[in-house]
Amino acid sequence: xxxxxxxxxxxxPMPRSLHVDEFNHDEDAVGYDLDVQNEADxxxxxxxxxxxxxxxxxHVTEESTVLxxxxxxxxxxxxxxxxxxxxCVDVSKAMMRIAxxxxxxxxxxxxxxxxxLEFFDEPxxxxxxxxxxxxxxxxxxPERATLLAHLAVRMNPGGSVIVGDLMFESLxxxxxxxxxxxxxxxxxxxxxxxxxxxxDLETDLAVLRELGFEVDVRRFSELSWGLSGRSP
Length: 232
Ligand SMILES: C[S@@+](CC[C@H](N)C(=O)[O-])C[C@H]1O[C@@H](n2cnc3c(N)ncnc32)[C@H](O)[C@@H]1O
Prior knowledge:
By secondary structure, this protein is α/β, with parallel strands linked by helices.
């Protein structure tokens, strides 16, 4: 999508994302925090280290207006320094209830139960920091580009977009990794990955750069990557 076409999507009403009901984590909420500790699972490997890096990289201060997309049980939120406001968006009531319990003492957090795309239907305040861990891969690639275009117009100059998520470096890396998992008897893992929309770094970095972000990339495991973007 060209820059012009990315921006054309901004005027249109935002539909709910296509797979939101499928990826609402209500059913997974109870076991989630235990599950993410399983470093032997390629989808979970690097989780703790990535979230800690993201919190540092976000440079949140008491003056910051922060948006967290897909905040889940609040594991990243809990690592963020106090802010003017942290708006946490997630579609799952059950995940949010756990997060609210963990973060009950924080009065800088506001909870919004919404689909990630629909959230941008309403005009909102300008943002200094956007963070999102392991959530945006639940959007299709075109939905992801639309979401990033919305972020670009909501960022204050010099604002940060810090993403940690499941990604492949390129389509050929994706083929090689999935083939290897399949050949080593991890058929269920391959099927699980194929049902989701892991970032394709080559394409998604091009989108971010077209939108004017300067982006640094860091790898935390075979599948977990961190992006640190700075808006113009
Ligand atoms: C894998 S969890 C990640 C949670 C948390 N950020 C973390 O790092 O542990 C993905 C979260 O995104 C939420 N989610 C998935 N698709 C969504 C959508 N379209 N809109 C809003 N939330 C969504 C799920 O309910 C879930 O809480």
